[in-house]
Amino acid sequence: MGFGRVLSAAASALVIIAASVPAAQAVVRQPLLPDLRQAPVGCPGGYGGDPGLCRDWDVCMVTDPRNPSGDCVTSGAIRAVRLRFTTAEDNVGAGPLLMYGRRSGASGDQMEVRQGFQAARGAPIPATFDEAERATTTSMYYEPAKAHRHWHLMNFVRMQLRTPGGETVAADRKNGFCLGDRYRTADAGALPGAAHVPGSPEDRLAERLGQNRCGYRDPGVTEMFEGISAGSGDDYRYDVDFQWLDLTGVASGTYDVVNTVNSNRTLVESGYDNNSSSISISVQWPGGAASRPSVITEAPAVTLLRSCPGQERCSGQRTPGKSTFARVQGPVAVTPRCGSTAPDESCCCCCAGEPATGVRETAAAVR
User: Highest mean pLDDT range out of 65-74, 101-110, 210-219, 226-235?
Assistant: First the structure.
């Protein structure tokens, strides 16, 4: 499962030694590891269909580039153009992703973070920071913005716009995520690590993470718990602030939109070959122009060429043996389908005018 390379660097934190066995004959048992799978770019969380048909993305022109969730407009003094898209991360591993934060006092806005592990199916879940023994290089941060007001796990997902050759031309400005069980994965029923037995530790964990608010409106807490159960996932809708890449200075051409979870591999997983997904898009400024005009009056036409789940490249050389889903779609309308105002604290993971579904009904106001 690819864990051997990680085990040597964190053996003291990850192994379980049977106390009744002499040291010379101690048996090393591998804990249950998560496996983070980056869902197809622009697809809603838990989607199991053809990703080439997903439309949880759009093009948004704004008048104030400093506003991360500014209203999308079609006229006026346009200063920026954004490609907005939903990101979703599944846990398809044998065990849950368990993240524990702590700080020494209520001063400051950062927590150090440890990763915990479940020893085996039905075994207890680590309850505290002290029980989660593996240190990480990431942190938790309290985000005071109105659409959040809770603790974010930093550097969990990265979003980039790249040329077919791999050069990055635009990168995200959002690094923090409030992790919880926001949906069931499409294949949860076939995953042994998912919660299947009512009342089991896995079931109780899923219930807790399904309601996780990450210390909503509580900047004074000194410990925090976040994570994703096996068979569940966490998503951020395209209409949430910073869920975009800036296209304003991007020339006409073909590009890859690349989503990567756990890009620096600070979190231990059973494997990393499914941590990226990408889509290939065409960007064309009006009138066949090679680049943006001095005065923007119309957004560039953005066309989805194909979707490449599990692949870091989509326009250029793709991963052998992995599927791509080609669906040439027309330019996306500039005006969002369900409103353009920033989500407020009562509805920041759903969209005005669209019904909440599944876990989202109990997870409102946590994003």
Answer: 226-235
Whole-number Å distance between alpha carbons of 107 and 87: 32
DSSP-derived pairing of the beta strands 301-308 and 325-326: antiparallel
User: How many other CB atoms sit within 10 Å of the CB of residue 128?
Assistant: 12
Let me know: does 88 contact 43? Beta carbons within 8 Å.
Answer: yes
- How confident is the model at residue 21, as a pLDDT? 46
Contacts of 345 (CB under 8 A, 6+ apart): 146, 147, 149, 365
Rounded Cα distance between 110 and 134, Å, is: 18
Q: In the Cβ-directed half-sphere of 47, how many Cα atoms lie within 13 Å? A: 22
Residues 78-136: tens digit of each pLDDT: 999 999 999 999 999 999 999 999 998 777 779 999 999 999 999 999 999 999 989 99
pLDDT value of position 367:
53
**What's the CA gap between 109 and 131, in Å, rounded?**
23
Angle at 43 between CA 253 and CA 38, to 5 degrees: 90
pLDDT score of 175 more than 80: no
Q: What is the pLDDT of residue 320?
A: 78
Rg (CA), the chain: 21
Q: What is the pLDDT of residue 322?
A: 81
Distance CA 212, CA 299 (A): 38
Contact status, residue 121 vs residue 196, Cβ threshold 8 Å: no
**How many whole angstroms separate alpha carbon 309 and alpha carbon 40?**
5
Cα dist from 320 to 115, 281, 314, whole Å? 33, 20, 12
Report d(CA 86, CA 44) in Å as an integer. 7
Q: Which two tokens stand for residue 255?
A: 């590009």
**CA-closest candidate to residue 170, choices 283, 271, 264:** 283
